[in-house]
Write a structure and sequence with these properties.
Blueprint: E1 5-9, H1 16-24, E2 28-32, E3 46-48, H2 55-62, E4 69-71, H3 79-89, H4 97-104, H5 106-116, E5 123-126, H6 129-135, E6 143-147, E7 157-159, H7 162-175, E8 181-185, E9 189-199, E10 202-213, E11 221-226, H8 232-248, E12 254-263, E13 269-275, H9 283-291, H10 295-303, E14 317-323, E15 329-335, H11 337-342, E16 348-351, E17 358-359, E18 370-376, H12 379-392, E19 394-397, E20 400-401
Parallel strand pairs: 1-2, 1-4, 2-3
Antiparallel strand pairs: 5-8, 6-7, 6-8, 9-10, 9-12, 10-11, 11-14, 12-13, 14-18, 15-17, 15-19, 16-18, 19-20
Helix pairs in contact: 2-3, 4-5
Length: 409
């Protein structure tokens, strides 16, 4: 019997885990990514340096081939291509157009929340920067400016004054594939990543992690602690809202990832963005350490028409720390990882760069250098271990220390 053929849309650092699992399962991998030097290309059986947004070119290349699944985790750039290719090749995982629009367009998602009667924050969208500037006249600072249809925290800025607004709008529009920009109310509270496996329109598994963000003006997830310290009624609200959102977007099964803020003032739950896909930023690694679940197996399975149960084998307090550089340049030194492993401070480490390689300043999520995973018996122990990492790990880029974070909570 031939191995299933799976088409992977995207081959970035955050998509590497899916490639590794697919390879271990002996799937035949055909990979597309606009970057000819994409990280995961070496793990694929066939590679094509084609944009994941160009579904017509991808379909032309695949014409006449047996395709068993179309899969694209960790990014929303390929959502529309996944929709068209799944229809063209009649693959098992059903993709609705509303799920595509909800994943890709931040303003569409917020509008759907409003239509569903769910908590939603103020926002406006537009292409004309003068009209947008006029539209936020009278808004209280700070608020958020972002591309309407980009991902990976690219172009997202917290704007604190009218003097910062024009440049933030221009940057966001330059990054948007459709030159569309959203201005949003800034919801102050605990930032969370909510990752769900949906089966038959019901939540089978849900993980909630607290996100530690970079310092403003950027809003890039840096570290995660799972489970987040939220009260049970808040978790119940999150689960209820997820199921209502998925029903409203015609999503029946598979992995879903959402950015959520639990507001400080009253613990009200605000969904900021969502993706009808598996998360990036090392979340699958985090869930594996926290719960022992086979999340990638299940996610690949649903795209292949298989049923893989997602049930926790245990419950642990876990943190995932992103290693990142505060400056662009050549990495010169990495030290302290062995000590952290020997002392039991970290239990896993994945570095994507080595000394001698050029690295980018951490201004978007894809510019990470690696991940560290910590386990503990309590949130307090996790906090102490995160502090230890900050003291011991030493990564130097052009004689400047890389940073793990400015602060963490």
């Amino acid at each position: 019997m031939n191995s299933p053929t799976i088409v992977m849309l995207g081959a970035s650092v955050d998509q590497l885990p899916s490639y590794r699992v697919a390879r271990d399962m002996n799937y035949y991998i055909i990979s597309f990514d606009g970057n000819p030097d994409a990280f995961a290309f070496p793990l694929a059986n066939e590679t094509y340096p084609v944009s994941v947004r160009d579904h017509q070119q991808i379909e032309k290349i695949l014409n006449g081939r047996q395709v068993d699944a179309i899969y694209s985790p960790a990014s929303d750039a390929a959502r529309l291509s996944e929709y068209h290719l799944a229809k063209a090749f009649k693959t098992p995982k059903r993709v609705s157009m509303d799920s595509v629009r909800g994943s890709v367009s931040k303003s569409f998602f917020l509008h759907k929340l409003q239509c569903m009667g769910l908590p939603h924050h103020a926002h406006i969208r537009g292409n004309d920067l003068a009209e947008l500037a006029n539209g936020v006249n009278g808004w209280s600072y700070p608020f958020v400016v972002k591309p309407n249809d980009s991902s990976g925290s690219k172009g997202v800025r917290v704007v604190r004054s009218a003097a910062e607004l024009g440049r933030a709008l221009e940057q966001a529009r330059s990054i948007s594939p459709t030159q569309s920009v959203v201005c949003e109310e800034l919801v102050v509270g605990m930032h969370c990543s909510v990752d769900v496996f949906l089966r038959d329109s019901r939540v089978e598994f849900m993980a909630v992690a607290q996100k530690m963000m970079t310092s403003e003006p950027f809003m890039i997830p840096l570290h995660y602690v799972m489970p987040a310290e939220v009260r049970e009624p808040v978790r119940d609200s999150i689960k209820e809202y997820v199921e209502r959102i998925c029903k409203g977007l015609d999503i029946v099964s598979g992995p879903i990832t959402c950015d959520v803020v639990v507001r400080d003032a009253d613990e009200a739950v605000y969904f900021i963005e969502m993706g009808a896909r598996a998360a990036g930023n090392g979340i699958s690694m985090l869930m594996n350490h926290a719960y022992g679940i086979d999340y990638i197996d299940a996610s690949l399975g649903v795209h292949l028409g298989k049923s893989v149960s997602v049930k926790p084998k245990f419950h642990k307090h876990v943190a995932l720390m992103t290693v990142a550089s505060g400056a662009a340049g050549v990495m010169q030194k990495v030290s302290g990882v062995d000590v952290l492993l020997e002392d039991g401070v970290i239990v896993d480490c994945k570095m994507f760069y080595s000394p001698g390689q050029f690295v980018k300043k951490f201004e978007e999520a894809s510019h990470k250098l690696g991940y560290l995973v910590l386990e503990g018996d309590s949130p307090e122990e996790i906090g102490r271990k995160m502090e230890s990492v900050g003291r011991v790990l030493d990564i130097r880029v052009e004689s400047k220390n890389a940073f793990l974070s400015d602060t963490f909570a």
